[in-house]
User: Fold this.
Amino acid sequence: MPIIETVEELAEFLEQNDEWRRKLFNILIPRALQRLPNEVEQFREETRQEFAAVRKEMREGFERVDREMREGFERVDREFENVRQEMREGFERVDREMREGFERVDREFEKVRQEMREGFERVDREMREGFERVDREFEKVRQEMREGFERVDREMREGFERVDREFENVRQEMREGFEQMDRRIKKNSDDIAELKGITLEQRYRNHARSWFNKHLRNPRVVDMPDIEDRLAETQPLSESEREDLAYTDLFVIGLRRADQQETLAVVEISYVIDESDVERAIRRTQIVAQRGLSAAPVVAGTTITQTARAQAEAQNCAVLINGRFEFGGALETPQGT
Assistant:
């Protein structure tokens, strides 16, 4: 036996010596493990036999199932064929009955359509005849209405003409009555205004000394003849100037306290002072001032309009309301100062 030093040498030796390999195999491998290949082989053989038996049974089962399915499908096909035949016969019968029914329905509908056409023609004929009768009746009614409206229109025109004449008479009487009333009212208003003016002028004439004393020393009322005489010394008055000054409501003369100069207040008196009163006072004052006599325009009354007040203040015209000077004008501030 050779000397073995390495594993490779042992493997090579065992590969060449079957007896030693068997002995070493029996020593190293347990007996149960040594029997395992034979047992595995036996198990494989038994398994092959069992699988062969199962495959045989499966083949026989599949053949039997296939045979039974073919037989079943053949029976089903025969049954389906019977059903299809019955359905074809049923559909043919239903189709025949439906065609016969529809033909009957068509015949009935044709009868109904014919009856409807005849009914509509009859109704149309009766409606035309009825409408013709209605048209004739309406024409009669329209004619009667036209005649009635014409009669009513004629009677209404005649009635309105009578009413217009009556209204015109009433309006004429009312106009004449209102005109007469207006004349009476105007006369009464004029009388009242004249009375109020006379009363107001008399009041200012009576209180001139006390009311003008604020701006004039020793104020006194003078009349037109006295004024005319003094003005004539410088330049005689024309006829229009004399007439204009003659309508002045009040003349008051005195020494103006602002400069001790003798000044004539030319006063226009009105219950309600307006722009025309301011204009007259200024115009008449200018007639006096043109002849060298110092003069101041004054408007007096119980109230004054806003525009008249603004005009008076702008042209330096004094404003005297209910005995009190609300604006002194030229009596307080001489012209040109």
